[in-house]
Each structure stands twice: as C-alpha cells, then as structure tokens.
Amino acid sequence: MLELELEPALALPPPRETVKNWPLIGDQIYQFWELASNNVGVALAKIAPLLKPVGSSLIQIAAGAGSGAIKFFIAIIIAGFLYSPAPSLVDAIRKFSRSLASRGEEFLQLAGATVRAVSRGVIGISALQAFFAGLGLMVAGIPGASLITSAVLILGIIQIGPSIVLIPLIIWSWMVMETTSALLFTAYMIPVSLLDNVLRPLVMGRGLQTPILVILIGVIGGTISFGITGLFLGPIILAVIWELLVAWIREHGSA
C-alpha cells in the first residue's frame, strides 16, 4: 500500500538562538517563532484574538486604498479627454476670474501652480519610490514583486505611505533570507521607504510662494477628508486662504 506524506502548506524555519538576545521582546518572539515553526495553526489560534481588531483596520485601509485608486484612474481618463480643449478652457476660466475679483487671475495662477507642485511632489515622487522599490524586490527575488510595487505606488499617492507594506517585508526577509542578504535588503529598503519624506517637500516647494508646510497640511487633510480629489483640493484651498490672509495682514499693517 502506497502511503503519501503530505507536507504542510505553510512552514516556517526554526528561530535562531540569537533571537533570544534581542532586547525586551527577544524571548517572547523566540517562543512564539518556535511554536509557529512546529505548528502554524496553533500559533495563529493563539494570536487570533489580538489580530482581529488589527485585521478590521487593515480591511478598512485596503478598501479606502482601492476606492482611491479607482477614483485616480477615472480622473486620469477624464484628464485625457480634457487635454485637447485645455487651452480654450483655461482662457475662458481666466476671463471669468477677472470678472469676479481684481485678483481673480492671480489666484487662478496660484491654483494652477499648486496643482503642478502637488503632481510633481506626490505622484512623481510616488512613481520614483515605486520604481526603486520594485527594482529592489526584483533583485532580491521577492515573490509577487509587481503586486507589491503597485501597492507602493498607490499607498504613496493616497498619502498612507509604503512603509505599511515594506516594513513587514523587511521583517519577513530576516526570517527566510541569509543574514547578509537580509542586511543588504534592509539597508536598501529603509531609505526607499523614507524617500518621499525627504524629496517630497523639496519638490513641492519649487515654484510656489506659499510655505511648504501649508501645502503639506492641505495635501494630508484634503486626502483624509475627500480622498484622491482632496489631494489637489486641499492644498489649493489652503494656498488661496493663505494668500488672502497675507494680503489682509499687509493692508491692515500699512493702514
């Protein structure tokens, strides 16, 4: 009689003894890791009550990211249809702004400059960050590299940030890779995950007189309140309000 031995679908390598030397939580991690290497089901059942609230939060974040991505792609399609008649539309809006207020055209130019700055600082930097992340994933041979790269791009655009994906990936690399490979992967991925924090303020501040802090607050607040649409509406509204406040202070200061 032929007996078939079924291997478990998911198996973790046993932990190294050096894990015990990790400060504060080394012993707890070692015990749980050892339990998971022997029986993943028992380990998951042990932490299931703790993961339930985290799982519901992650589902809500994923749902928001999915709806934001759909809105973003719809906006790209609409922008494509508006690309050809854009000059005539801008002229019409400029003439209309002049009839509304003496500084209407100035605020219209401010709105346009803000949109360009946000596009470069948010979408451009997110694309650059996704490129470097995807390059590192491909070199390291990470499975599902294209899917993870897409997640990095989307999370960067909707202002959640790619760290929510890259940090667990870095932790996972220390479990399955050799020490040298995991160290190189970590040394590469940590700067990539922090790339937007360094480059985004520099890029968004170019060509604008409005303080970069006002633009960043508008980007974050607008995205939280209105999703992908607020990514542009938030900084435009705050930039106009800031310019009005500055003009009001100048007028009353000189009076």
Secondary structure layout:
Layout: H1 26-38, H2 40-83, H3 86-100, H4 104-140, H5 145-157, H6 163-176, H7 179-193, H8 195-204, H9 212-226, H10 230-254
Helix pairs in contact: 1-2, 4-5, 4-7, 4-8, 4-10, 6-7, 9-10
> How many strands, which pairing sense, and closed or not: the largest β-sheet?
none
Secondary structure category: mainly alpha
Distance between the termini: 102 Å
Helix count equals 10
Spans of at least 5 consecutive residues with low confidence: 1-9
Determine the oligomeric state from the structure. Answer: single chain
Radius of gyration, whole Å: 25 Å
Shape summary: elongated
Structure description:
The protein has 255 residues and is mainly alpha-helical. It starts with 25 loop residues before the first helix and ends with a helix. The protein has ten helices and no strands. Residues 1-9 have low confidence and may be disordered.
Short note summarizing the structure:
With 255 residues, this protein is an all-alpha fold. The chain has helices at 26-38, 40-83, 86-100, 104-140, 145-157, 163-176, 179-193, 195-204, 212-226, 230-254. The protein is elongated.
Feature tags:
mainly alpha; disordered N terminus
